[in-house]
Amino acid sequence: VINGKLVLGEAKEIQEVKNAYNAYEKIAEIDPYSIEELKKFHGIMTKYIVEESGDFRSGEEGVFNGEECIFMAPPARFVPQLMNELFGWMKEVKDQMHPLILSSVFHYEFVFIHPFTDGNGRMARLWHTAILAKWNPVFEFIPIESQIEKFQDDYYDAIAKCHVEGESTVFIEFMLTQIDNILEELLNQMTNSTTDDAILDADGANHGADNMESRLLSGLKQNPYITQTDLAKELSLSRRTVQRIMKELMNDGKIKRVGSTRTGHWEIND
Known about the structure:
Elements: H1 11-25, H2 35-45, E1 62-65, E2 68-72, H3 79-93, H4 99-113, H5 120-135, H6 144-150, H7 152-165, H8 169-196, H9 208-222, H10 228-235, H11 239-251, E3 255-258, E4 265-268
Antiparallel strand pairs: 1-2, 3-4
Helix pairs in contact: 3-4, 4-5, 4-8, 7-8, 10-11
């Protein structure tokens, strides 16, 4: 039982979940610019499951996606120097480079160096989150780890492309896209939650969805050529929420699109 929930699986898998939970519980305490802190949290993340827990690797490692080798990591003898250089670079640029960019560059370089025997992916994602949480505490609650798991093949493809190209632009773009998707999904959930609880009449009926629908229809009447992005801004809604409502209206035959996506307009069926 972890955090009041029953977890089923092999002993190692259960220990990994426990370790990850313990590490993320302490994320607000992390100094993301300290190598010693990194080793300490690797010790927490890999407790009881990795022989060299909390220490840099002594052997050679590669980055794998299943059975496929993405690339071989630098020799173990270079790891301490490479990690010192990476953390030194972070300290130098952290006041000039935006944390969203810095954390993504760190993530890629960390995976490339592959400093530990095991747990490198988990540590890269933990540290990515820690860097962002130091900038804005809201990131303590943003599920970066879960999002990457959903797009694991794309994650490894981005790493492989960067390895071939010798720079991290593709990976930065991938991570920024995933973070943007997470935030938009969370905003959408919040909007839906607000809608569900929004407007109750004397009989207890919920008219929140009807209110949003009427506001959207009013916006389309005023400007049939308006884009979904601009409509979302006018209504203070997420773009995904507007897309969802408009899809429902189209399915119900209340609105229709006339012309192309770029030059067409909306018609309302009264």
